[in-house]
Amino acid sequence: MPTAIRGPVLTFTGDPYRHGLEGTMVHEPDAIVVMENGLITQFGPAATIEPNLPPGIAVTNYGADALISAGFIDSHVHFPQTPMIAAAGAQLLDWLNRYTFPTEQKYADKEFARDVAKVFLRENLRNGITSGCVYCTVYPQSVDALFEEAEKLGMRLAAGKVMMDRNAPEKLLDTPRTSYDESKALIAKWHNRGRLMYAITPRFAGTSSPEQLEAAGALCREHPECFMQTHISENESEVAWIRQLFPGRNGYLDVYDHYSLCRPRSVFGHGVHLTEEEMTVMHRTGAAIAHCPTSNFFLGSGYFDIARAVRSDRPVRVGLGTDLGAGTSFSILVTLNEAYKAAQLNGHALSAGHAYYTATRGTAHAMYLEDKIGSIAPGMEADLVVLDMKSTPIIEYRMQFAKDFEEALFIQMTLGDDRAVQATYIAGRQVYRRGPQHRSAMLPV
Ligand code: GUN
Ligand code: ZN
Is-contact 114 148, C-beta < 8 A? Predict the structure, then answer.
């Protein structure tokens, strides 16, 4: 049975970095989106769609103060770090040793992993995130726990077992052989099961021996349809350390390229300090960068230059990532707010249109999924978020002075957070609806 939702819609038909916002951004002030069997079957102005709706169809009308968008996509996030978000006082390598590695040891216990996976996915839905590329831990049971919970929701999710065989506590280490075998078994079990997809996950060159990177490369060659995710050039001390660990290679990205890890569907977290030569390799190989601004500011890593990355003579695919638990918010609106500031520090202003593109279709493009998710059109998977454009008293007040739609969008990404998410749909099913308590009542004075 089809269902439908009605309200203002924002979506993109292409890449505004290449073709401009005028030709790619669609704002339909009163639209209907019809969904059936997990897909969008019709989308257009209410005036055209309404007369042709199937008789008896339920239409949920969100009204003029809503905004319906494709669900947000988080291209870089660590679900096991949910219990340690907001760990103070350290930069990357120290932060990993002090907080991350001790926390990740708890995931040998599958029930603990399941409990965290539930909280993690709940927060995704509360923030309108309907897809992602997720790191688990070195323990295969942590991957099973996340996939089992995501499968219940019908989410399109990529995830993988972390491979790491050095420079971490003994309990978190695998070996080149066991990491290959366990990843291989998880691919056979989960890749393309429903909407789930596998991501081959060597944590980063600092925690993998050359032999393990070789094993990860073999997995990539054997499974070109799987994702590959790792970290690159996040922090200057990290970049210097990787140079020491791999003196024979011509820089950080060359380590990964040497082991066949640079290819389509490879998602490299951060890339804050990539050289021009490395950007060219990213472009040539079709790999993507996950831009994680809240994390980069929190760990003092730097500020990624998105305008430079997408430069038209050698555009690199860029997705948006929260990078929890180094990232400080599940909210994509908050993440866009920080992306704006990162761009400002690089001397550019990120427009609201470009920002929302990056959070939806742009990240789908980075993950080679733009034929399935990231935009609203017939045939696309029906993953949607419904925003409330007046979700707090100050946003409601500020919206009176918005002179156009772009300004209204910018207000949302600068002032909005999880309270702005009214509803989330996965494969056409409503999986989250905001409760009435999102605005605290004013006491009379
Ligand atoms: N580099 C290697 N592992 C990690 C991690 O867990 N988080 C971040 N932000 N960077 C990393
Ligand atoms: Zn990360």
Answer: yes
Instruction: Pick the atom of ligand 1 nearest to 326's CA.
Output: 9
Q: How far apart are CA 100 and CA 427, in angstroms?
A: 33
CB neighbour list of residue 53: distance below 8 Å, 6 or more residues apart = 4, 32, 34, 59
Phi first, then psi: what are they for 25, rounded to 5°? -95, 125
Look at the alpha carbons of 243, 246, 249, 253 in this order and tell me if their dihedral is positive or negative: negative
3-state percent helix, strand, coil for the chain, nearest multiple of 5: 40, 25, 35
Is beta strand 3-12 parallel, antiparallel or unpaired with respect to 58-61? parallel
What is the CA(420)–ligand 1 centre distance, in A? 29
Distance CA 35, CA 398 (A): 33
**Three-class DSSP category at 34:** strand
For residue range 365-396, what is the model confidence (pLDDT) as tens digits?
999 999 999 999 999 999 999 999 999 999 99
Exposure class string for 150-175: b at 16+ Cβ within 10 A, else e: beebbbbbbbbbbbbbebbeeebbbe
Q: Is 234 in the pocket of ligand 1 (CB under 6 A)?
A: yes
Q: Separation of 203 CA from ligand 2 center, angstroms? A: 8
pLDDT digits (tens, 9 = 90+) for 404-431: 999 999 999 999 999 999 999 999 999 9
